[in-house]
Amino acid sequence: MKVAVVGATGLVGGEILKVLAERDFPVTELLLVASERSVGKQMEFKGKQVKVIGMQDAIAAAPQIAIFSAGGSTSTEWAPKFAEVGTVVVDNSSAWRMDPTKKLVVPEINAKELTKEDKIIANPNCSTIQMVVALNKLHEELQMKRIVVSTYQSVTGTGVKAVDQLMNEREGKEGEKAYPYQIDLNVLPHIDVFQDNGYTKEEMKMILETKKIMGDDSIRVTATAVRIPVMGGHSESVNVEFEKDFTLDEVYRILGETEGVVVVDDVKNLKYPMPQDAHGKDEVFVGRVRLDETQPRTVNMWIVADNLRKGAATNAVQIAEYLVKHELV
Ligand code: 2RA
Predict the structure, then answer these.
(1) Among residues 139, 190, 234, 279, which one is catalytic?
(2) Which CATH class is domain 127-307?
(3) Which residues bind substrate per the record (predicted)?
(4) 234 CA from centroid of ligand 1 (Å)
């Protein structure tokens, strides 16, 4: 399989290469694609040095699959050009997620909707992925009515510049700023740009993408997305109201049967999900499960995942694996 990784030099690009190698994805030829300033750079893949090339050369090579993590404008401009040469694009940006002609895929939930006609496939936002992975079987059995989510998102979601700002602030060094304010010892209730309704784009992504992935517009979602000075992954406090009655034991049973979820919930022994434990892993970790004692059919939980892995790279590679397994590419 000739595979292109577009945005190979970024944080997610690097994770995609790691995941492709770890999962032994059937790569026969790897194309590393980045902006002109990175062309010619060497990167390692499975012990071999691979040279970074530009977009036109990558399109000319007509890879079967191109996994993009290069921002929305790059995807908007270049994904269709890859599709024109027969490449199936799995795109990590927000460019295509809400396009009604494009599928928004979390393999554990809706990969079965994919067909040979899908040439540009959208990878959901990291904070959406971990939430829907945790909730999708509960929705299947108990029908979600309303979700209230507050996120605690790692600086790695912003990228290298943000990680550098945090490290520089910790070490008392000057440097480029990814955020309008100090991030160390601080939290920013602001991820992506503010919309006219007072919500940020990140919050609107969670609200709209959740409905699309679950295929259920009736689910009411409200979100507050917060940036915190953490590296290992995103955490989310989620309050979910269901249509059907349930017991806490049933919630634990369903979570235990949910693909991609690991329940870490033993507060007597101080066992609960944390980014430092999720870092580098592909599972979605769920804990602090408890009834909301203020209203019926409602439960609280804490959801943690590595946003660069299941939140981006691994989900995208799992989509590619599905395409190969079902001969859709
Ligand atoms: C973030 N989810 O965390 C966004 C994009 N990766 O910044």
Answers:
(1) 234
(2) alpha beta
(3) 153, 227
(4) 9
- DSSP assigned state of 282: -
> Which residue is listed with tokens 């009655």?
245
Q: State ipTM.
A: 0.96
Instruction: Choose among 127, 138, 68: nearest CA to 102.
Output: 68
- Token code pair at residue 104: 């928004």
Query: Catalytic: 279?
Result: no
Catalytic residue among 126, 139, 279, 326: 126
**Residue 266 DSSP class:** B
Ligand 1 within 6 A of CB of 69: no
Distance 259 CA to ligand 1 centre (A): 23
Q: Whose CA is nearest to atom 4 of ligand 1?
A: 157
* 131 C-beta closer than 6 A to ligand 1: no
Q: Give percent of the chain with pLDDT exceeding 90.
A: 100
In this structure, are residues 296 and 230 in contact, taking their beta carbons and an 8 Å threshold?
Answer: no
| Alpha-carbon separation of residue 134 from 59, 227, 259 (angstroms) | 37, 21, 9
- pLDDT band for position 63 (50/70/90)? very high
The separation between CA 247 and the C-alpha centre of its own chain, rounded to angstroms, equals 30
Mean pLDDT score across all residues of the chain: 98
Contact indicator for 255, 317 with CB cutoff of 8 Å: no
Q: What is the DSSP string of 134-179?
A: HHHHHHHHH-EEEEEEEEEE-GGGT-HHHHHHHHHHHTT-----SS
Q: In whole angstroms, how large is the CA radius of gyration of the chain?
A: 20
**CATH annotation of 2-124+312-325:** 3.40.50.720
Ligand 1 contacts CB of residue 191 (under 6 A): yes
Q: Indicate if 126 belongs to the active site.
A: yes
Residue closest to 149 by CA, chosen among 97, 253, 86, 222: 222
Tokens standing for residue 165: 């700002």
Q: Taking the domains of the chain in order of start, what are their residue ranges?
A: 2-124+312-325, 127-307
Q: Which residues are within 8 A (CB) of 65 and not within 5 positions of it... i.e. 6 or more apart?
A: 1, 2, 3, 4, 87, 88, 89, 90, 320, 323, 329
